[in-house]
Amino acid sequence: MVRATPFLLLLFLALGAHGLQGTQQCNLAGHWKNDLGSNMTIYEVKGNGDFIGTYFTAVSASPSEIKESPMLGSQHLPYLSQPTFGFTVNWSFSDSITVFTGQCFVDEYGKEVLKTMWLLRSHAKKRGDDWEAT
């Protein structure tokens, strides 16, 4: 029985390592496009989880010409295979800011997909306009 214990431990470690190989890492850095045609580029995710990039929206209620806008974000640490994250876009062509929060998933075909929710805040001229500005 003494020899069986190391063998079972070795077998468990081998099976456990095989199971880990199937987990794919989702990398936020790169170019992303959503189903409405908006484009986002994340340049690099730093060791502390912070990242910068640009966002070009295909959808806007602003009468101004749409321009590429800077974004600043953070990925939750420690690095998980399918990380949660958040970022802020400071729109270059309007008086609003949007915050996004979401998670990066790897589907069964190995494709990386971002699922997000967002909240846009426009400038309000007075306190009474607060509710409709969000």
From TrEMBL:
Disulfide bonds listed in the record: C26-C104
Name of one Pfam family that matches: Avidin
Subcellular location: Secreted
One of the record's GO cellular component terms: extracellular region
Alphabetical keyword list: Biotin, Disulfide bond, Glycoprotein, Secreted, Signal
Signal peptide residue numbers: 1-19
Any one GO molecular-function label of the UniProt entry: biotin binding
InterPro entries: Avidin, Avidin-like_sf, Avidin/str, Avidin/Streptavidin-rel
Keyword Signal (UniProt): yes
Role of this protein: Forms a strong non-covalent specific complex with biotin.
Family: Belongs to the avidin/streptavidin family.
Summary of subunit composition and partner proteins: Homotetramer.
Protein's name according to its UniProt entry: Avidin
